[in-house]
Amino acid sequence: MNPRDHDSHLQVRLAQPDDIFDIAGLLRDLAGHGLGWAWRPARIEDAIRDAETDVIVATDPGGALHGVGMMSLGEENGHLQLLAVRADCAGQGIGRRLVEWLEACARAAGMARITLEARESNHDGICFYRHLGYAKVGSVMGYYGGQETAIRLRKVLRSEAMA
Ligand SMILES: CC(C)(COP(=O)(O)OP(=O)(O)OC[C@H]1O[C@@H](n2cnc3c(N)ncnc32)[C@H](O)[C@@H]1OP(=O)(O)O)[C@@H](O)C(=O)NCCC(=O)NCCS
């Protein structure tokens, strides 16, 4: 079976408060990527309830969570705060679907660009974003708990001249 056939059965939708513990569990399982500890249930709940933040999930027909994405919307900048796909579902197009969903939200909200940070050590994550059209625009020393450098990436949605 083509892995993308699996992806086509997934639904991408806005997260609900009922999803909080599933999201926290998925992120805990990815703790090796530095995600789990920063995203405790209370913080996830705040994000879901925040009108300026889109939290989305990919779920299968049985309701199981396969991925999560989160973006906050500023005046002109969408900040992609979080993206995670269950490790056993990687490489099936779920990450791309989540990013494209959030990009569509950002465009609809009039954002000029999307920025994000990834750990300098997260080579796979950085390559994934570059593949989706994000370009490195800088690095931020000590961004992660004063310890690890972040690589900042950006995708322009519309030219600054029109912004
Ligand atoms: C990074 C992550 C979100 C990718 O999700 P995924 O569902 O495995 O990615 P997809 O299958 O949607 O891949 C989308 C595209 O990116 C490409 N891609 C994925 N990883 C890549 C890599 N390391 N190098 C180059 N291209 C890559 C795929 O080939 C695919 O290309 P295509 O759509 O043109 O065929 C996922 O592996 C993950 O959650 N990692 C742990 C957490 C993390 O690192 N989050 C992001 C950084 S904060």
Your description of this structure?
It is a single chain. The model has no long low-confidence stretch (mean pLDDT 92). The protein has helices at residues 3-8, 20-29, 41-49, 94-108, 123-131, and strands spanning 11-14, 53-59, 65-73, 77-85, 113-119, 135-144, 148-156. With 163 residues, the protein is an alpha+beta fold. The chain has a single domain (3-162), classed as Aminopeptidase. The chain is globular and about 40 Å long. It has a 7-stranded mixed β-sheet with strand order 1-2-3-4-5-7-6, with helices on both faces. It starts with a helix and ends in a 7-residue tail after the last strand. The relative contact order is 0.14. Helix content is 30%, strand content 34%. The chain binds coenzyme A (COA).
In CATH terms, the superfamily is Gcn5-related N-acetyltransferase (GNAT)
Name the helicity range. Answer: 25-40%
**Biggest sheet descriptor:** 7 strands, mixed
Low-confidence stretches: none
Structural class: alpha+beta
How many domains make up the coordinates? Answer: 1
Write out the strand line-up for the largest beta sheet, numbering strands in chain order. 1-2-3-4-5-7-6
What would you call the shape? globular
The radius of gyration computed from the alpha-carbon positions, rounded to a whole number of angstroms, is 15 Å
Mean pLDDT: 92
* Number of DSSP strand runs: 7
Q: Number of helical segments? A: 5
CATH fold description:
Aminopeptidase
The ordered H/E elements are: HEHHEEEHEHEE
SSE order and pairing:
Layout: H1 3-8, E1 11-14, H2 20-29, H3 41-49, E2 53-59, E3 65-73, E4 77-85, H4 94-108, E5 113-119, H5 123-131, E6 135-144, E7 148-156
Parallel strand pairs: 4-5
Antiparallel strand pairs: 1-2, 2-3, 3-4, 5-7, 6-7
Bound molecules: coenzyme A.
Coenzyme A binds at residues 30, 33, 83-85, 90-96, 118, 122, 124-125, 127-128, 131.
